[in-house]
Specification:
Layout lengths: L3 H10 L4 E6 L1 E14 L6 E14 H10 L3 E9 L2 H12 L3 E7 L5 E8 L2 E8 L7 H15 L4 E5 L8 H9 L4 E4 L13 E2 L3 H7 L8 H12 L3 E5 L5 E5 L5 E3 L12 H14 L4 H15 L10 H9 L4
This protein binds adenosine-5'-triphosphate and magnesium ion.
Length: 322
């Protein structure tokens, strides 16, 4: 799908690129602990916390992937006037992400806390607001986005359906003339007409057009492309890799590359980050999808790693990565 000379040429250009990511920011929090006893208060385990880790999640995980790949990145989104929001901004800055955030005093910063013990997730605690943005916040966000759009090579929409992505924002992005890559939320499907491409996973693809699970993925892809009026579509298929649709051709299937699988969360974020950077760096769609597939295969095999660096990506393709 891609040879190592082409891979090098493309990956070497990443550092000259600038990407604007827009979408729902999430603070990912992990509490790692041990269980020794059952609570005297209720029939539940008592977790003694040994370690706490925090990461930029949701759309900011896409931004983190872009910065790890050596490119510049703006992250546009909304946070609440709270500790989680401040922490998230700091985490982004530490990772060379330029946050373009609007503080909305009526919202909570979305925060997902996982409690992990005995090597498994025991509980997840979510705090979030999913209301539409107010007109005021939407306007301020658009103003900021317009400024950073000018010197961006592409836009990634990372829509987790928490309210940041709306019709007005999508209109601004589409009118900018920049390529727009979308990781979709099926309930917002109608907003994505005329974008450059979309990268739904299998479940999202079927939900976007409400087709039966028995329908072949080829038909699902076709319908999505017709409805959105787009020429290219990448459906990610988990352990089965990807299906790349281009024009009226039969989709090409790209087999998954993972050597081992530990943690599949965030693989979709890596896919859209690599696909976008590769395309604006001169890759064909086939080459870009292939690079994204190698990158995703790597991140699913690493514990606690959801990003890939340029050198690792190159070595995965040249076969030097052991
Ligand atoms: N079990 C697996 N084995 C091998 N590769 C995998 C596996 N799961 C995911 N991948 C790789 O990651 C890519 C994206 O995975 P998937 O289709 O699960 O996306 P997703 O559901 O959007 O992920 P996310 O958890 O980030 O939302 C796949 O196309 C494949 O390259
Ligand atoms: Mg996904």
């Amino acid at each position: 799908m891609i040879n190592k000379e082409r891979a090098k040429e493309i990956i070497d250009r990443f550092r000259e690129k600038k990407v604007l990511v827009i979408g729902d920011l999430i603070l990912d929090r992990y509490l790692w602990g041990e269980v020794e006893r059952i609570s005297p208060e209720a029939p539940v385990p008592v977790v003694e916390v040994k370690k706490e880790t925090v990461n930029p999640g949701g759309a900011s995980n896409v931004a983190w992937n872009i910065s790890a790949l050596g490119a510049s990145v703006y992250m546009a989104g909304v946070i609440g006037d709270d500790e989680a929001g401040k922490l998230l901004e700091n985490l982004m800055e530490e990772r060379n992400i330029n946050p373009i955030t609007v503080v909305d005093t009526d919202r909570l910063t979305t925060e997902k806390t996982r409690v992990i013990a005995v090597n498994q997730q025991l509980l997840r605690i979510d705090r979030e607001s999913r209301e539409k943005l107010s007109d005021y916040v939407s306007r301020v966000l658009i103003q900021k986005v317009n400024e950073s759009l000018k010197d961006s090579d592409a836009v990634i929409v990372s829509d987790y359906g928490k309210g940041v992505i709306n019709e007005r924002i999508m209109e601004v992005l589409k009118k900018s003339g920049k390529p727009v890559f979308v990781d979709p939320k099926p309930s917002n499907f109608h907003l994505y007409r005329g974008v450059t491409t979309m990268t739904p996973n299998r479940k999202e693809a079927y939900e976007c057009i409400k087709m039966e699970r028995t329908a072949p993925v080829e038909d699902v892809g076709r319908r999505i492309m017709e409805k959105l009026g787009i020429d290219t579509l990448l459906i990610t298929l988990g352990a089965e890799g990807m299906a790349l649709f281009q024009g009226n051709n039969a989709p090409s299937r790209i087999p998954a590359r993972a050597r081992k699988v530990y943690d599949v969360t965030g693989a979709g974020d890596t896919v859209i980050a690599v696909l976008t950077l590769a395309r604006i760096s001169g890759a064909t769609w086939e080459e870009a999808a292939s690079l994204a597939n190698y990158a995703a295969g790597y991140v699913v095999g690493e514990i606690g790693t959801a990003t890939v660096e340029p050198d690792t990506l190159y070595k995965l393709i040249s076969g030097e990565y052991m």
